[in-house]
C-alpha cells in the first residue's frame, strides 16, 4: 500500500505539472509519453491510487485554508489590539492635547502622571472650578478695614484670624513662628518738623506735616541747608548735577517718588553725594492727582522705609529669634541722614522759591507754580530746616505657616507667601496678597481631599513686618539659610498682586521664565474675555515684556538674592499708575473703583496663574526650571568685555578667564539638560538625583567670597555690592566714560571674584569631580 501511495503521489505531481504546461509546445512528446506511463500505472494501482489522489487534493486545499485562517486571525487580533489601545489611551491623549506647549518646558520630557490617577489636565480643571471670586473680595475688605502695623491690636487680631482660617482647612501642618525685631515708629512725645529759617537760623515759617507720615529707619536728628532738586534721585540724576557743578553737599535734596528707584536707594545716593537730608514727594506727573479723576490729593504723602536692605537692620545676616544672644550690629544699609515724606503741596512751596540752573526738560514735573530749577539757593535767602523724631522699638512678630505634605518628595517645598501687616489700610499692600494666599490654600486643600496627590510639599506663609523691609520673611530665611537651597524649589510672592487689570508684570528669576510662559498660555485675561494672558500680551507688543528683573523692595528679592532660591512676584497693573499705594487712602473702595468692580475676577485670574505654576512644580517628575538661562546673561557681559579687550590687555587684564568660565557653565548646563532628556524619568532614584542638582543652580550664583553679614545679597546677578555683575559692568564702563576713575586693582579683584563664582557654578553642575575638565590657560 505504501508503494502504491508513493506512486500515486508521484503521479499526482506529474498530473499537476502536465496540466499546467499542456499548452506548451516544447517538450510535448516527452509529456505524452509520461501520460501514457501514468495511465498504465493507474490500471495496476486500482482503487488505492484513486483514494490517494483524492487525499492529496484535499491536503492541498487544507493548506490554503490554514494560511487564510492564520492571516485572518492576525488581522482580527491587530484590529482588536488597536481598538483597545485607542479606548484606554484616549484619556491620556486628551490630557496631553490640553497641556500643549507645557510638555516642552525646560526641554525636559517629564511624564504627566498625577497622584491617585489624576492627570494634569484634570487637576487644572479641578483648580479652576474650586477658585472663587467672592472669597478674595471679602478677605481684602476684612484685611483693609483699618491700619494694622506689627505689634498693634488690629495686627494681632488679624494674625489670629488668619491662623484660625488655616486651621479650618485641616492641612497637614499649621503653626506659627514668633521673633522679636527692632522696628521704628514716630515718637509720640515729640513730632518731626519742617520749617524755613532765615540767615540767622531763626524759624520764619513752619510747614505743617502729617504726624503719621514718616520713613521707617530714617536717621533721627536735624538737618539745615539749601535745597537741591534731584529729579528721581537716580545715579544718572546725581551725575547730571555733578556735571553742571551743582553741589548737593550740606543741602537737603528734594526727590520725586518713582523712577524705578526705592526710597532707600534715593536716600543712600543723596547721602553718598554729601546731602544733609532728604525729602521725597509724589509729583502729579508720576502719581495721578487730578481732583476730577480718581487720584491722590495734593495733601497726601507717600511713605516707605529707607533701609537699604531687608530684615531687621540690627541683626544683618543672622536671625532675630533671640536678641539677647547677639551683640548689637548695625546694618550698613541704615541711612546716616534724616529723611521725610512730604506732600506735593509742600514740595511746590519749596521748589517754587528756588534759584539756580534750569533743570533738563525730562525733569520737569507737573507741580503748579513751579519753574523747574535745581537750586540750591532760595530767592529770599532762606534755608530749610528739617527734624526727624522717630524711636526704635522691639516688636514681637508672628509668621504663620500651613502646609500640604508631598507624597513622593515631601522634603522639597514650593512656597507661597504674602505680607500681612500695613501702616495704613493696605488694600493693595497687604489685603490682595493675603486674600489670594488664603484662596489658593483653600483650593489646594480641597483638591487634596478630592484626590490630588502632590509629589512635593506646598507651604503657605503669612509674613509679618513687610512694610519695614520684608522683616518677617528675611528673618525666617536667615534662620534656615543652611538648608533652604536643599529644600526650597521656588517662592511665589503675592504682595501687591492686583493694582489694576490690564498689564501683567512678573519680577522673576530667569530659572522660572519657561514655567511662566506655559502658564500665561493657559489662563484667561481678566479684562479680555476669550483671550489668554499670552495672546493679549502679544497684541500689546510681545509677551517678553511681561518678565522683569527682581527689585530690592520686592517680596521675592531676598529669596533669590540672599538665599539662592528661584523666586517670582506677579502683578496686574494699569497703564496709569495706582496712586494710593503706601498711603492712608489705599482702601478697598478705591481699589474697586480703579478696577471697575472687578477685584474678585482679577484676583482670581492672578491666583489661577500662580496655581498653574504651582501645579507643574508639585506634579512633574523633573522640575521644569530653565537651567541654561544664566549662560545667556553672562554672554551679554562677555560681549561688553570683548569690546574693551584690547584696552584691558594693555593693562595686563585678560577677559579670557571669564570667557572660559562662561563656556564651561554653558556646556555643563546643556550636558545636564541632555542627560535629563534621555533618562528614564519614572525611575525615582534618577529623578531625585537630577532634581537635587536643578534645585541648587540658583544657590551656585551666591558668591562664596563675600560675607553674608556684611554683604547679605550675595547673588552675583541679582544681588547688591562690588561682587555683582552690575557693579563689574559699571566699573568697566569707566574705561570710556571716565578713565581717570578706573581702578585697575579693584577691577581685577571684581573680575576674579565673579569669574570664580561662575566657574564654581559650572563645576557644581558637572557633578562628580572626575567629570570636570577645566582648561586653565595661563596668560602673561
Write the layout of secondary structure elements.
Layout: H1 2-21, H2 28-45, H3 47-99, H4 120-130, H5 133-143, H6 153-168, E1 173-186, E2 193-197, E3 203-207, E4 221-225, E5 227-229, H7 235-243, E6 252-256, H8 263-272, E7 277-281, E8 339-341, H9 344-351, E9 383-388, E10 390-404, E11 409-419, H10 427-449, E12 456-463, H11 471-479, H12 481-487, E13 488-493, E14 503-508, H13 513-520, H14 533-539, E15 547-548, H15 557-561, E16 567-573, H16 588-595, H17 599-619, H18 629-643, H19 645-650, H20 656-677, H21 684-695, H22 697-700, H23 725-737, H24 744-766
Parallel strand pairs: 5-6, 6-7, 7-8, 11-12, 11-13, 13-16, 14-15
Antiparallel strand pairs: 1-10, 2-3, 2-9, 4-9, 10-12, 14-16
InterPro entries: PA_dom_sf, PA_domain, Peptidase_M28, Peptidase_M28B, TFR-like_dimer_dom_sf, TfR1/2_PA
Region (Disordered): 1-25
Domain Peptidase M28: 399-590
Q: What can you see in these coordinates?
A:
- This protein has helices spanning 2-21, 28-45, 47-99, 120-130, 133-143, 153-168, 235-243, 263-272, 344-351, 427-449, 471-479, 481-487, 513-520, 533-539, 557-561, 588-595, 599-619, 629-643, 645-650, 656-677, 684-695, 697-700, 725-737, 744-766; strands at 173-186, 193-197, 203-207, 221-225, 227-229, 252-256, 277-281, 339-341, 383-388, 390-404, 409-419, 456-463, 488-493, 503-508, 547-548, 567-573.
- With 780 residues, it is an alpha/beta fold.
- The protein folds into three domains: 127-185 and 393-619, Aminopeptidase; 191-388, Glucose Oxidase, domain 1; 628-766, Up-down Bundle (Transcription Elongation Factor S-II, Chain A).
- The strands form three sheets. The chain has an eight-stranded mixed beta sheet with strand order 1-10-12-11-13-16-14-15, with helices on both faces. It has a four-stranded antiparallel beta sheet with strand order 3-2-9-4, with no helix packed on it. A four-stranded parallel beta sheet has the order 5-6-7-8, sandwiched between helices.
- Helix 10 links the parallel strand 11 and strand 12 (456-463).
Amino acid at each position: 500500500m505504501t508503494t502504491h501511495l508513493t506512486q500515486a503521489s508521484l503521479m499526482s505531481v506529474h498530473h499537476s505539472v502536465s496540466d499546467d504546461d499542456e499548452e506548451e509546445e516544447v517538450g510535448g512528446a516527452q509529456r505524452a509519453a509520461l501520460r501514457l506511463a501514468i495511465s498504465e500505472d493507474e490500471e495496476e494501482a486500482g482503487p488505492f491510487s484513486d483514494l490517494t489522489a483524492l487525499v492529496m487534493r484535499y491536503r492541498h486545499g487544507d493548506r490554503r485554508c490554514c494560511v487564510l485562517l492564520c492571516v485572518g486571525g492576525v488581522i482580527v487580533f491587530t484590529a482588536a489590539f488597536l481598538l483597545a489601545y485607542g479606548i484606554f489611551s484616549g484619556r491620556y491623549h486628551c490630557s496631553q492635547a490640553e497641556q500643549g506647549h507645557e510638555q516642552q518646558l525646560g526641554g525636559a520630557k517629564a511624564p504627566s502622571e498625577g497622584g491617585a490617577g489624576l492627570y494634569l489636565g484634570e487637576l487644572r480643571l479641578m483648580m479652576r472650578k474650586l477658585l472663587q471670586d467672592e472669597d478674595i473680595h471679602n478677605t481684602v475688605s476684612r484685611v483693609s478695614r483699618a491700619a494694622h502695623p506689627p505689634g498693634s491690636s488690629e495686627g494681632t487680631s488679624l494674625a489670629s484670624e488668619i491662623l484660625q482660617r488655616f486651621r479650618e482647612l485641616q492641612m497637614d501642618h499649621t503653626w506659627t513662628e514668633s521673633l522679636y525685631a527692632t522696628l521704628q515708629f514716630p515718637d509720640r512725645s515729640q513730632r518731626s518738623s519742617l520749617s524755613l529759617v532765615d540767615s540767622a537760623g531763626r524759624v520764619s515759617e513752619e510747614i505743617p506735616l502729617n504726624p503719621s507720615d514718616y520713613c521707617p529707619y530714617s536717621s533721627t536728628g536735624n538737618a539745615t541747608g539749601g535745597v537741591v532738586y534731584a529729579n528721581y534721585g537716580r545715579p544718572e540724576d546725581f551725575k547730571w548735577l555733578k556735571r553742571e557743578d551743582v553741589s548737593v553737599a550740606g543741602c537737603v535734596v528734594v526727590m520725586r517718588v518713582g523712577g524705578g528707584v526705592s526710597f532707600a536707594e534715593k536716600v543712600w545716593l543723596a547721602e553718598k553725594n554729601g546731602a544733609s537730608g532728604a525729602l521725597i514727594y509724589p509729583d502729579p506727573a508720576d502719581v495721578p492727582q487730578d481732583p476730577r479723576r480718581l487720584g491722590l490729593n495734593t495733601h497726601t504723602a507717600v511713605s516707605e522705609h529707607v533701609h537699604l536692605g531687608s530684615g531687621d537692620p540690627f541683626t544683618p545676616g543672622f536671625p532675630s529669634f533671640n536678641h539677647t544672644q547677639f551683640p548689637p550690629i548695625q546694618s550698613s544699609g541704615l541711612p546716616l541722614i534724616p529723611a521725610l515724606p512730604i506732600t506735593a503741596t509742600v514740595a511746590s512751596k519749596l521748589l517754587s522759591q528756588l534759584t539756580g540752573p534750569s533743570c533738563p526738560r525730562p525733569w520737569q514735573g507737573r507741580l503748579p507754580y513751579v519753574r523747574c530749577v535745581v537750586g540750591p539757593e532760595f530767592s529770599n535767602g532762606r534755608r530749610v530746616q528739617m527734624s526727624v523724631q522717630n524711636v526704635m522699638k522691639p516688636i514681637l512678630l508672628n509668621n504663620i505657616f500651613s502646609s500640604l505634605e508631598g507624597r513622593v518628595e515631601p522634603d522639597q517645598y514650593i512656597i507661597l507667601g504674602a505680607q500681612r501687616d500695613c501702616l495704613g489700610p493696605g488694600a493693595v499692600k497687604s489685603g490682595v496678597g493675603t486674600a489670594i494666599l488664603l484662596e489658593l490654600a483653600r483650593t489646594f486643600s480641597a483638591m487634596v481631599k478630592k484626590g490630588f496627590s502632590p509629589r512635593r510639599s506646598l507651604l503657605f506663609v503669612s509674613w509679618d513686618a513687610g512694610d519695614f523691609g520684608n522683616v518677617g520673611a528675611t528673618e525666617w530665611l536667615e534662620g534656615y539659610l543652611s538648608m533652604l537651597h536643599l529644600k526650597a524649589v521656588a517662592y511665589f510672592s503675592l504682595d501687591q498682586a492686583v493694582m489694576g487689570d490690564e498689564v501683567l508684570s512678573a519680577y522673576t528669576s530667569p530659572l522660572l521664565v519657561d514655567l511662566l510662559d506655559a502658564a500665561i498660555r493657559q489662563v484667561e485675561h481678566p479684562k479680555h474675555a476669550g483671550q489668554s494672558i499670552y495672546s493679549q500680551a502679544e497684541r500689546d507688543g510681545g509677551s517678553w515684556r511681561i518678565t522683569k528683573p527682581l527689585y530690592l523692595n520686592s517680596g521675592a528679592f531676598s529669596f533669590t538674592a540672599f538665599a539662592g532660591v528661584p523666586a517670582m512676584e506677579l502683578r496686574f497693573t494699569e497703564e496709569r499708575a495706582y496712586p494710593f499705594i503706601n498711603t492712608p487712602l489705599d482702601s478697598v473702595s478705591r481699589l474697586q473703583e480703579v478696577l471697575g468692580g472687578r477685584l474678585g475676577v482679577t484676583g482670581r485670574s492672578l491666583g489661577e496663574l500662580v496655581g498653574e505654576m504651582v501645579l507643574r512644580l508639585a506634579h512633574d517628575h523633573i522640575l521644569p526650571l530653565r537651567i541654561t538661562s544664566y549662560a545667556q546673561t553672562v554672554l551679554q557681559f562677555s560681549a561688553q568685555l570683548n569690546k574693551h579687550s584690547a584696552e584691558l590687555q594693555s593693562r595686563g587684564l585678560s577677559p579670557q578667564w571669564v570667557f572660559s568660565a562662561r563656556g564651561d557653565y554653558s556646556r555643563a548646563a546643556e550636558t545636564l539638560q541632555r542627560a535629563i532628556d534621555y533618562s528614564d524619568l519614572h525611575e525615582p532614584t534618577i529623578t531625585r538625583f537630577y532634581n537635587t542638582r536643578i534645585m541648587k543652580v540658583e544657590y551656585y550664583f551666591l558668591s562664596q567670597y563675600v560675607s553674608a553679614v556684611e554683604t547679605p545679597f550675595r547673588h552675583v546677578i541679582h544681588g547688591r555690592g562690588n561682587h555683582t555683575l552690575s557693579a563689574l559692568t559699571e566699573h568697566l564702563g569707566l574705561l570710556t566714560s571716565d578713565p581717570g576713575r578706573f581702578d585697575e586693582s579693584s577691577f581685577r579683584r571684581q573680575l576674579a571674584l565673579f569669574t570664580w563664582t561662575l566657574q564654581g557654578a559650572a563645576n557644581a553642575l558637572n557633578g562628580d569631580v572626575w567629570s570636570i575638565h577645566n582648561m586653565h590657560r595661563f596668560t602673561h
